[in-house]
Specification:
The complex is a heterotrimer of chains A (249), B (317) and C (293). Chain A has ten helices and ten strands. By secondary structure, chain A is an alpha/beta fold. Chain A has two domains: 1-77 and 168-249, Rossmann fold (3-Layer(aba) Sandwich); 90-166, no CATH class. The longest helix of chain A has 21 residues, at 117-137. Helix content of chain C is 72%, strand content 2%. In chain C, a hairpin with a 2-residue loop joins strand 1 and strand 2 (137-139). Classes of the chains: A alpha/beta (249), B mainly alpha (317), C mainly alpha (293).
Chain lengths: 249, 317, 293
């Protein structure tokens, strides 16, 4: 479903990524792990369209999407969440998710300004859909809270609900467990599994090994900008090179 | 939603009834001005308060609307309504095209870029003397009319202008509470996240910029026809700053706030009749104090102040 | 166009360019130390000229006392501006920071208008008005003063930033604020210094150009913008690149005014500004920045 082929990224004099290639299977939960500085976030940003790679290709559902900007990728069914969560702070929780439905709605400036009947009915639909996703993420009781006032854990859930609202085929999550306590992390793992059950492919970059080993179907290990290993959690746990990389051997 | 409708109807009612109290009073002229300034403040607020893009050259679009309408009707005898629409279309398309490169800039650079743009337009007004009359201004612009109804008095112009204002307010409120409005606010809060959700940030910014310019152009045309005389100083940097002050005072991102800011700043020169030369200092002071102590504008700051005061009182009771 | 005309325009362009360079360096210094574009920079230029006038005519002081006094007062204004307007608002959003500096510039301009008046005034040239011939072109002694003083200031600048502890500390702040603070540099004081240096430079610029172009309460806006343009061309460098930027701008403007029309002279600078901002915002010499998410 997603193929990353020969990705190399050079920033100035630093080679952040060197010839990284792997395939993400549809319906899998795939984890990307590696020690700090391995290039995980850089890779992520390349796939998500924030950076453009120096060379190599990103292929989504057999389409070469290398260099496509994030807004275009959203329409192609790929969304992402952020390590430091990027909420629309001044907007309510509900409004945040309603923005998530941007790609599923169409009213432009003129229809909106004139409040045409189809604009009105679309608004209702957007609102109802958004509420459904808030419910799915378990934060429907916070619908009218200004999102900047949310505790971090709830903000995480909101960002996820917002991403899901666009009904993506693949969701990229950048360190979703960062900043969560163990109970919240467990809730997150359940949520991710439910996302997978909806048929959405999940790719996550993570440091929390317990979470990764628990829910991922496949794991890709990066080290110093190169792909070190790829396989099931069990295979990765037993891979001597991976162990060495993490322990600094 | 019903609360919004009620607010709007109340506002419209106040607007429509006010002239009854002021008929014949020279303040009518000020109220006409207030309408023009409200339209301009709303236009700037859509760009600055909602989309978060700063422009220090908005007086330029205002001036373009005024001069295009003025020249086409007075020198070339075009039908005024047609000229107004033509000006709006021309300004809108130009703003759209210019917007693409200019709105790539952010923050301070955008401020400087739009400032430069506004000044270039201002210089054009001054230098194209055969066309615009240059620094001494352009006169002989006819009043607007519909059929046999000629808008030649402050009273009639009041209703003309404020009808446009009410329409602008309505359209802006609709826009703000729509999919597009949310996309704009999302853009303002986190451009990267908005893009990830599919919002075409670049296009949207340019569209709002163009819409904002169109509203300014229409206001300019109306201004030309009500004043019947226009001159470059009304469309320079100082006025762009005045507009900015109106929006900041009223409250960024609040449509009614723009009205409040426009109203206050239109009345200010009247109150300061005696101290005409102090106006620049006062604008600077107001702007500075507002940003320092009430960055949300009056629309948010006053209720909060009220809450603080009554809150304290309630606590001690 | 004749070579003589070309020479004439270029020479006068160089001296106005020097002024733009001084103002531009002022912008850069503040920007590099704080990340803020000080919209009020042009007003310090205005203050230089108007204050000199004040000391000369109202206080009846000789030129050689009036000038340093004007520079001192201008610097003092810079200090006050930073203390009263900038420091309290370090946490403000970018838009609010822009508005604050705009408000500051308006205030300074408004107060100046009240203290003095709206007329344009001239200040006597430093050493007379005998034209000096260079080839078939002529320049005035004031032009030479401008170039000389600009060179002097640029030299002092260079020395300060690269060979004194204080200057190096300021550069450190520009590169990485937090790190600078962590190694014991008083960042707040550096910010204050940057404002003081910029307002001093702006004041000097205003003084040396006033004999040629007259001074009034509102000369700050246009001069400020052109200085900003010089800074942009130079990629916001506080050194040679901005100086070159200013000179280039001055010459282009002068040539343009001569070839096209003098009414549009100011427009030339702004068109160049827009073009650079759009096509090459890092300036002619800067390197492009990439954003880290």
């Amino acid at each position: 479903m997603l193929e990353v082929s020969g990705i190399t990224q050079i920033f100035g004099g630093v080679t952040a990524l060197k010839d990284v290639s792997f395939v993400v299977r549809k319906g899998d939960i795939t984890g990307v792990i590696g020690p700090n500085g391995a290039g995980k976030t850089t890779l992520f940003n390349i796939i998500a369209g924030i950076y453009t790679q120096t060379s190599g290709r990103v292929i989504l559902n057999s389409n070469d999407v290398s260099g496509f900007p994030p807004e275009r990728l959203a329409y192609l069914g790929m969304v992402r969440t952020f390590q430091n969560i990027e909420l629309f702070g001044q907007m309510t929780v509900l409004e945040n998710v309603m923005v998530g439905l941007h790609t599923k709605s169409r009213c432009g400036m003129i229809s909106s300004a004139l409040k045409m009947p189809w604009a009105r009915s679309e608004e209702k639909k957007i609102r109802n859909e958004a509420m459904k996703w808030l419910d799915f993420a378990g934060i429907i009781d916070l619908a009218d809270t200004v999102s900047a006032n949310l505790p971090f854990g709830k903000g995480r859930l909101l960002e996820t609900a917002r991403a899901l609202a666009s009904e993506p085929s693949i969701i990229l999550m950048d360190e979703p467990a960062a900043g969560l306590n163990s109970q919240e992390t467990w809730q997150l793992s359940q949520l991710i599994k439910r996302i997978r059950d909806l048929g959405v492919t999940v790719v996550l970059v993570e440091h929390d090994m317990e979470l990764v080993m628990d829910i991922c179907d496949r794991i890709i290990v990066l080290n110093l900008g190169e792909k070190l290993a790829e396989g099931t959690p069990r295979e990765i746990q037993e891979n001597p090179y991976v162990i060495a990389a993490y322990l600094g051997g | 939603m019903n609360r919004e409708i009620f607010k709007y109807l109340f506002f419209a009612l106040v607007v429509l009834i006010t002239p009854v109290f002021f008929q014949g009073n020279y303040l009518m002229n000020v109220l006409v001005f207030m309408g023009i300034n409200t339209m301009l403040a709303i236009a700037l607020n859509l760009l600055l308060g909602y989309a978060g893009q700063i422009s220090l050259g908005h007086a330029g679009f205002f001036g373009l609307g005024a001069y295009i309408s003025g020249v086409l009707t007075a020198t070339y005898s075009w039908n005024p309504w047609f000229a107004m629409s033509f000006a709006a279309a021309l300004v809108g398309i130009s703003a759209f095209l210019v917007g693409f490169p200019v709105l790539k800039l952010k923050g301070h650079y955008l401020a400087m870029g739009t400032l430069g743009l506004g000044i270039i337009i201002y210089i054009m007004f001054n230098e194209t003397v055969e066309l615009t009359g240059g620094p001494s201004g352009f006169s002989g612009i006819a009043n607007l009319s519909i059929g046999t109804l000629i808008f030649d008095s402050d009273f009639k112009n009041y209703y003309l202008i404020w009808t446009f204002v009410l329409v602008t307010v309505l359209l802006s409120l609709n826009l703000a509470n729509s999919r597009v409005g949310r996309a704009l606010r999302a853009l303002h809060d986190s451009e990267v996240a908005a893009r990830v959700m599919g919002v075409n940030a670049r296009l949207l910014k340019v569209q709002i910029f163009a819409l904002s310019a169109v509203i300014c152009s229409v206001a300019g045309s109306l201004y030309a026809h009500t004043m019947t005389f226009i001159a470059p100083p009304s469309f320079g940097f100082n006025f762009s700053v005045e507009l900015l002050t109106m929006v900041v005072i009223g409250g960024l991102g609040s449509i009614y706030g723009s009205f409040l800011g426009a109203a206050l700043l239109t009345l200010l020169p009247e109150i300061l009749r005696e101290a005409k030369d102090y106006d620049i200092v006062i604008y600077g002071l107001i702007l500075m104090l507002m940003v320092m102590f009430m960055p949300g504008g009056l629309v948010r700051g006053v209720p909060e102040l009220f809450r603080k005061i009554t809150g304290k009182g309630g606590g001690n009771a | 166009m004749q070579f003589d005309q070309l020479l004439q325009f270029s020479l006068s362009g160089l001296s106005t360019g020097a002024i733009y360079a001084l103002i531009g360096v002022g912008f850069s210094i503040i920007y590099n130390a704080t990340g803020i574009i000080n919209f009020a920079q042009g007003e310090f230029v205005m203050l230089g000229g108007m204050l000199t006038l004040f000391f000369l005519e109202t206080m009846q002081l000789p030129l050689w006392i009036a000038i340093p006094s004007a520079v001192c007062v201008s610097t003092l204004c810079g200090l006050l501006f930073e203390r009263l307007a900038i420091r309290p608002l370090r946490e403000a959003t970018p838009i609010n920071l822009v508005i604050i500096t705009i408000a500051g510039s308006i205030l300074i301009r408004g107060i100046s208008m009240l203290l003095w008046d709206k007329d344009t005034h001239s200040i006597p040239s430093f050493s007379g008005d005998e034209p000096i011939a260079i080839g078939n072109a002529t320049i005035l002694p004031q032009h030479l003063w401008i170039l000389a003083i600009t060179l002097l200031i640029v030299g002092i600048n260079r020395f300060y930033f690269y060979h004194t502890i204080s200057g190096k500390a300021m550069r450190a702040c520009a590169y990485n604020r937090r790190a600078a603070g962590l190694v014991g540099i008083d960042v707040k004081r550096m910010v204050l210094f940057s404002f003081m240096i910029s307002s001093a430079m702006g004041g000097v610029a205003g003084i040396i150009v006033a004999p040629l172009t007259m001074t009034a309460y509102d000369v700050g806006i246009i001069l400020g913008l052109k200085g900003f343009c010089a800074a942009i061309i130079g990629g916001m460098s506080s050194g040679l690149a901005t100086v070159v930027g200013g000179l280039v701008l001055g010459v282009l403007e002068s040539l343009g005014a001569g070839i096209v029309s003098s009414g549009y002279k100011d427009a030339i600078a702004f068109i160049i500004l827009l073009l650079i901002l759009i096509i090459r915002p890092q300036g002619l010499f800067g390197k492009a920045e990439s954003e880290r998410v």
